[in-house]
Amino acid sequence: MIDNKKISKFAISVIQDLQNHNFQAYLVGGCVRDALSGIEPKDFDIATSATPEQVRKIFKASRIIGKRFKLVHVFNRSELLEVATFRSGNNQTNDDANLIKDEAGKILRDNVWGTLDQDCYRRDFTVNALYYCPISKTIEDKSDGLKHIHKKVIVSIGDPQRRFEEDPVRSLRAIRFSNKLGFKIDNNVKEAIYDKGHLLSSISNARLFDEFCKIFLGGMGEKNFIKLCSFNLNKYLILTDPNKSDFSNDIMIRALRNTDDRIRNNQSVTPGFLIAALLWPILISKCSKDGEINIRKFFRSMDGVLREQQKLTAVPRKFNSYIKDIWVLQLKLHSRIKSQPYKTIRHPRFRAAYDFLLVRESASRDKNGLGKWWTDFQKNDDSLRGSLISRMNEKSDEESSKIFGFYNELR
Length: 411
Known about the structure:
This protein is α+β, with helices and mostly antiparallel strands. It folds into 3 domains: 1-151, Beta Polymerase, domain 2 (2-Layer Sandwich); 153-237, Orthogonal Bundle (cca-adding enzyme, domain 2); 271-410, cca-adding enzyme, domain 2 (Orthogonal Bundle). The chain has helices at 9-20, 30-36, 52-58, 116-120, 145-151, 160-166, 170-181, 187-196, 205-216, 221-230, 246-264, 271-287, 295-312, 320-332, 340-345, 350-364, 370-377, 382-393, 397-405, 407-410; strands at 25-28, 46-48, 62-65, 71-75, 80-85, 100-101, 107-109, 130-133, 138-141, 153-154, 184-185, 288-289, 292-293. A 7-stranded mixed beta sheet has the order 3-4-5-2-1-8-9. Strands 6-7 form a two-stranded antiparallel sheet. A hairpin with a 4-residue loop joins strand 8 and strand 9. Helix 11 packs across helix 16.
C-alpha cells in the first residue's frame, strides 16, 4: 500500500534499531497520511513505546527537547527525525486526569506515557492516526483513518468541541489539511471551529508564527486564507482586516497568490515579503489623510505596525529590517530622476520591493506604468536606461514630487 522507496532510509533504519531493542516503532502522522493520499511524503515522524530517555541511550546523535510535549530529535548529517513516545489518556473514556490543563481545557503538559492504542486517541484527526511499520509493511488503524482517507473527509478523534479546547490550534490544522489534501471538513469539526476558534487568542505568538508559516508558505496560502476568513480566524494570524476595503482584500489575495506561484515554480519564499505585503494596507491607513500620504507618519508608523503584528505572531526580529526596507523602497521606486534609479536598483532588497510593486499595481489596478518602467530599467541596456531617466527628467520637479504624495499612487 505504501512504497518504501518513498520513505526516508534513515527513518527506516531508526525504526529498525528501536525494534531491535524490543520496542514498538512506527512512522506516524503526516508522512503516512500523505503517502496514502498520493502526496510525496516528508517529515518522517516516528512513534515508539520507548521513553525519551531510552531513545536517547540507543542513538548517540540525539537530544531530548520540549516541556509541553517531550520528544527526541535523532539526526545524522542530512536529516533530523522527531521520535515521540506513545502517550496515554484515552479520549473515549476521558482517562486524562494526569494531564495538566488550564481553566479553558487547553493541555499545558502531556508527558504521561502509554500504549499505541492510547496514543492513537490522543491525536487530532483520524487521517493523522495511522501507524505504518516499514519493516513488516503493515498499517495500524485504530480510528477508521483509512476509511476517511478513502472518503476524503477530515474527522476528529473524539468530541471535537473538547479536543479543540485541549488545543485550539487544531482549528487551523483542520483548515490546512483540508486544503492540502482536497478533503472536506466533517460538520462536527466545522461546528467546533466556529465555537472554539476564539480560544486561539490564548495561544503563544511563537506557536502562531509557526502556524502562519505552515498555512501561508506551503503553496496553499490563498485557499487557506479564504477558508480562514470564512471561519473568521484570519484575525488571529494577520493584523490587516481584508473587509476594510476592496484594496485590502485584493492586495492580500494577490500577495498570497504570488507566494503560491513562486512555490509552484520552485522559487524561494520568505515570511518577510509576505508580512510586508499583508501589513501594507494597515501602514498606509495610519499615515494617510484625505488621500495624501504623510511621509513622516509613514516612517514613524512602521515600527508600531510591526509591534501590533508581533502580538499575534512572533515574527523573528531578523525580518523587521527586511520588511521595512521593502516598505521604504516603495517610496524610492517612485523617484526616477537623475541618479536615483541606479542607487535603488543596487539595494539588496530591490528585487523583493519590485515584486511587491507589481503586486500593488495589480491590486489597485494601477495603469500608470511604474512597474513596466522598472521592468524595462532592469534590462542590461545602458542606452535604454539613459532614455528612461531622460524622459523622467523632462518632467517638472513639482510633478515628480507629487508621485510621493498621493495615496492612490502608493496603493
